[in-house]
Recover the amino acids of this structure.
C-alpha cells in the first residue's frame, strides 16, 4: 500500500497538470472565408448526392408460414395460399419500414405497383414480415 508521501506527490502532480492546462487554454475568435462557408453549406448543398442514390424497395403481397416438412414437399406447380385477400393492397417497404400501399398491375408484360397511399412517418409502420 502506498504511503502518504507518495499519495501526496501524485496529488501535487495532478494539480500542477490541471493548472498548466488551465493557463494554456485560451479562446480565440475565428473568421471563415466565403469559400469555407460555401463548402460547409449544410444539408441543402449535399442533398443532390442523395437524390441520385438507388434504394431497394420491397413489395409484399402476402405472407405464409410453412412447416419445414411441408416446405420440403413443395414442387413445381405447388400453390401456397397467402394470408391477404386479392382485394387487399400490397405493402411497399424501404428497408424494414412500410412507407406506402398500392395495387399490383401489369405494365408491358411485367408486374408493377400502382401507388395508392403514401403513409406518414410512424403511421402503422409495421416491420416487413414478407
Amino acid at each position: 500500500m502506498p504511503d502518504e508521501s507518495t499519495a501526496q506527490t501524485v496529488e501535487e502532480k495532478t494539480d500542477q497538470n490541471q493548472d498548466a492546462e488551465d493557463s494554456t487554454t485560451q479562446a480565440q475568435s475565428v473568421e471563415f472565408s466565403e469559400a469555407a462557408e460555401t463548402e460547409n453549406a449544410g444539408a441543402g448543398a449535399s442533398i443532390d448526392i442523395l437524390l441520385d442514390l438507388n434504394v431497394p424497395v420491397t413489395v409484399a403481397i402476402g405472407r405464409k408460414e410453412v412447416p419445414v416438412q411441408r416446405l420440403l414437399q413443395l414442387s413445381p406447380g405447388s400453390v401456397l395460399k397467402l394470408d391477404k385477400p386479392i382485394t387487399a393492397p400490397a405493402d411497399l417497404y424501404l428497408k424494414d419500414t412500410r412507407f406506402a400501399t398500392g395495387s399490383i398491375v401489369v405494365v408491358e408484360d411485367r408486374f408493377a405497383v400502382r401507388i395508392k397511399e403514401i403513409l406518414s412517418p410512424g403511421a402503422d409502420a409495421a416491420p416487413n414480415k414478407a
